[in-house]
């Protein structure tokens, strides 16, 4: 029903079922993980009116499990990316895995998925630091990248009088780069994801 993905690692598609409505994935060497993707496999949907709360669990310095709510997956939102790198020093929260004796080792964390009513999911508040990267941060990055490229390319600008003929080099007029820069900015403002089409 669920899958878990960490960049640079194999996809995990077989969680350990620890209760009828609770599943966990082990995350070895979790100290080196920044983001985790949790997704539905598409084989079995949630029952009507149900969804899955996604938790991150790591052992504290005493080896006790610290659970933090990351967010949710539902039939309408079958996947999510969560940032876990900043959570390893935070406080735990209430969670549905409390009564279970899940093994904890110092270098293994877990992702837990609890199947719950959608109305219960809507009342829960994920930890703030697990927020997924937004389009706004992507747009900001793209803007800075465009500015940097234009400034870099412009730093090599020379007048026609300063040019020396060199048959092995191609020259691009600065106004062409400026036109591309302005068009890209305009399209990014209209639709930040235009480049995906």
From TrEMBL:
InterPro entries: Hikeshi-like_C, Hikeshi-like_N, OPI10. One of its GO terms (biological process) is cellular response to heat. It is found in: Cytoplasm; Cytoplasm, Cytosol; Nucleus. Residues 6-130 form the Hikeshi-like N-terminal domain. One of its GO terms (molecular function) is Hsp70 protein binding. Keywords: Cytoplasm, Nucleus, Protein transport, Transport. GO terms for cellular component: cytosol; nucleus. Residues 136-196 form the Hikeshi-like C-terminal domain. It holds the Pfam family Hikeshi-like_C. Forms an asymmetric homodimer; required for binding and nuclear import of HSP70 proteins. Interacts with ATP-bound HSP70 proteins. Acts as a specific nuclear import carrier for HSP70 proteins following heat-shock stress: acts by mediating the nucleoporin-dependent translocation of ATP-bound HSP70 proteins into the nucleus. HSP70 proteins import is required to protect cells from heat shock damages. Does not translocate ADP-bound HSP70 proteins into the nucleus. Belongs to the OPI10 family. This is Protein Hikeshi. It comes from Crotophaga sulcirostris.
């Amino acid at each position: 029903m669920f899958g878990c993905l960490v960049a640079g690692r194999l996809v995990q598609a077989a969680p350990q079922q620890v209760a009828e409505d609770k599943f966990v994935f082990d995350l070895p060497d979790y100290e080196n993980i920044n983001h985790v993707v949790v997704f539905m496999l598409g084989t079995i949907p949630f029952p009507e009116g149900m969804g899955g709360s996604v938790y991150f669990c790591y052992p504290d310095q005493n080896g006790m499990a610290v659970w933090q709510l990351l967010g949710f997956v539902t039939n309408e939102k079958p996947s999510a990316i969560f940032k876990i790198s900043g959570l390893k020093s935070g406080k735990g929260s209430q969670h549905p895995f409390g009564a279970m004796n899940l093994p904890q080792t110092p270098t293994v964390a877990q992702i837990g998925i609890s199947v719950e009513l959608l109305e219960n999911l809507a009342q829960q508040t994920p930890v703030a630091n697990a927020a997924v990267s937004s389009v706004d941060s992507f747009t900001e990055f793209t803007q800075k990248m465009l500015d940097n490229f234009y400034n870099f390319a412009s730093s090599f600008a020379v007048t026609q009088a300063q040019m020396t003929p060199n048959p092995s080099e191609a020259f691009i007029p600065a106004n062409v780069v400026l036109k591309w820069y302005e068009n890209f900015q305009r399209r990014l403002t209209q639709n930040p994801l235009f480049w995906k089409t």
